[in-house]
Every structure is written in structure tokens, then in C-alpha cells.
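To close the chapter, one final illustration. This time we ask the reader to focus less on the individual chains and more on the assembly as a whole: which components sit near each other, and how the overall shape emerges from the parts.
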Amino acid sequence: MAAKPKGRAPAKSKAKAKAAAKARPKEKIATGKTAVDIDHFLKTKGLDTEREKVIGQHIGYRYDVNLLPDYSKLTPFLRAYMETMGWEDLNWLEDVHMGYEDGKPAIFDRNINGWVTVSKGIKLPGNQQDRDMLARELLVKFQMSARHPLVQLKQVYKKF
Amino acid sequence: MAQLTRSKSEHPSYALGWHTIPLKGRSQQAFFTVEDEGENFVYPYAIDVDFNKRIEFDAANLEAPAINLKIRELMEQGYGWIVVKNPLAKHSLGVGILNRLKLDFEGSLGYFGVGVIDGPNIRIKGRVGWSCAENMMSGTVVIEKNAGSCFGAAIRGGDLVCKGDVGARTGIDQKGGSIIVGGRTGAFSGFMMQRGRMVVCGDAGKNLGDSMYDGTIYVGGSIQSLGVDAIEAELTQLDIDWLTRKLALFDIEAKCGIRNMKKVVAGKQLWSYDNLEPAEKKLVL
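The assembled structure is written out below.
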């Protein structure tokens, strides 16, 4: 096996790789009636049709709600979560996807009926399946946090 | 207190009478950083149970509320595997469990069994009545025999499995999760489905997927008729992989072969919000 070259890659090859990545066609995601670029809702407000421009808001989902998970992309955290719960697959997390809100990547949390935005420090993968796995992991961490709004609500309103 | 204030935006929609009215004072900002959270896999208010700690009790002489309380008490004692003997088809058993738990019912359940659950793995050896696992959030429910109508009504997540036949309106208003039927399903299955997946290995009754907004229905047998805006679509490799894995998980066989299953999705002709005039929209909303 050839040894890995040490040190930083030359600037030329880096620039070449960057150009190649730019030239590569971006993954398309199905959101409603049409397929759009994966970063469409990060780059634009999603006002594509005449009607959307007139009313000033996007119509429909910003991600493919029917996309089935690719289990080869499962993260160690999600595996550990499944094991703890006694499940052999993602269970309810199969319905969790990375969405977009106000031009930011975000995950819909059904327990608070709102969007949880992904912080800037987290690097977004280039394909939807990996993004969905990241969304699942973040959502579990958020929901199981003692700082989740549901904890306070439960303390105030719980009946038993 | 929340205040209704009109947006001062000069958007063209203003001229058409379609305004943005933000509700101020209602939003909440939660301070949360991923790095600060440990590897916690259960809700902070969850009861700590051990799957290896098993207990059985006889429910023959207990009323439904007493059975549900007994399950809760046993969970608080740390039992993670509870077996309920002789449930005698009583109604509303095993409801409101928001915890990880193995729960077995050795018999049949009545109406509204195992509703509003979030996390447990439930096995029912007999049959179930109407609206089993209604509003289920997560977990698995496996029924060995048949189920009544409105099976998995308004389910939002998790796997709901019936190895036998189910009644009408299966998965009515389904908002997520997977409903798997080993046998046949009745009329209006998937009615107003919004999301999630339904697998029917046998035949499906009239008006399958009527007025469905989104989601996917897979059928192994014949479909008596499709409902309004439900259309057939092509199976993808991702569908085949998912079906193969899911059916194997619950030991269910698609007699016709997974590759021959029919896939039904929303035709999206009912997605007509963009065609409404602002004044009409106001009336609808």
C-alpha cells in the first residue's frame, strides 16, 4: 500500500478539488411538487412561484417528508439510543428530517411544536441522508435535555 | 400577555388583503448547546426501569384504571418488563406510558388500548378493539391477532403492527410512524393521511388513501378502489430495502413478494392553497 503523503496538500491540488466539488451537481430534494437543490432554502427564501412571490411566503414543506432513512448512515449515538430504548431501528426518528427555517437549517420538534435551529458551529453535510441523521441526533439530545421547555411545562401542568 | 400587532411591511400581499399578524410575546428562546449535554437517551422525567427485571400480575379482578395504576407502580419499583395476565378485553388499558418499558398483555384488549404512548415496546397476544394505539408517539406495538377499526388513529410515530386483519379507517389522520398489517385492511384506510408509512400485506378495501395529503401506503394484495387524490407510484430501491428490513423485524411475510407491492402516494391535487384568493384564505383559516 502506498504511504500517505505527509504535511499539507499543495495549494494547486486544493484549488482543483474545490473547483471539482463546485462543478459536481448538487443533490436534489423533493419538496412538494418539484425537486430543488439541497441548499435551496439556505440560499433563497424559497419564493419560487408567482403565487409565493405575491403572498411573500413559501408554500409546502422545505424538505422531503417521505424520504426513507438510509441505515448505512447511522451514527454511533443513534445506535446507542436505539439500544437503550430496546428498538431495532430508528422507530419514530424515521420521520425526522433536516428542515430549513428562516434560511437556517432547523429541526421540527413535535413536543414543542416549533423549530430548533442548528447552531452555526455545526458543519452541515452535503447530502440529505447525512443531514437527516444529524437532525435525529440533535433532536434526541434536545428532547432529553433538562433544559427542554417540556420539562418546565410538565412541572407546572402534570397531573400524575 | 400576547399582543396582536400588524406588520408594517410594504409587501405586495398587503394590497391583496393578506397580512402578516405576528403574535408577540409568545415565542420562547431556549438556551441549549449540544456540547453541554451528556449522552442521555431518556426524558429527564422518565422513570428508571430495568428490562431484565420482570414481573407478572393477574388483571382478572381489577378495573381498567386500577390496572393502569398498577403498571405505573411497578415501573416506579424499577420493573422494566411487565406481563399482564387476563386483561379480559377491558377498555383503555396500557395508556399514557411515556417511558421505555416492555409490556406484554396475555389476552385481548378492548377499545382505545395502549393509546397516547411514547416509548414502550408492547406485545398483545390476543385481539384489540377500536382505536388501538391512538395518538402513539414512539415505541412498538405488536398485536398477534386481529384489530378493530381506526387502528392507529392519528398516530405520530413508532411501529404499530397487527399480524392479522384490521377494520376500516386504519391510520385515519396518520401524522407519522409506520402501521404494518399482516392481513387485510378495511375501507377508507389512510383517510386524510398526512405523513408516515402504512404497509398492508393483504388486500385493501374501498377508498384507500382518500384525501391523503402526504405519506406512503404499500399494498401487497388487491386494492378495491383508490380514494380521492391517491395515486400509484413506482417502488424505489430505498422502499424495497425499508420494506424488507421492517417486515423481517416483525416476522411478517409479504406473500406476493416485496418487489410486487403497490405503492400509493398523494397526487397532490388537493394542495390547492396557492390557488386560493387571500379573501378565501381568510375564510378557510
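The mean pLDDT of chain B is 88. Chain B touches chain A through 58 residues (CB under 8 Å). With these observations in hand, you are ready for the problems at the end of the chapter.
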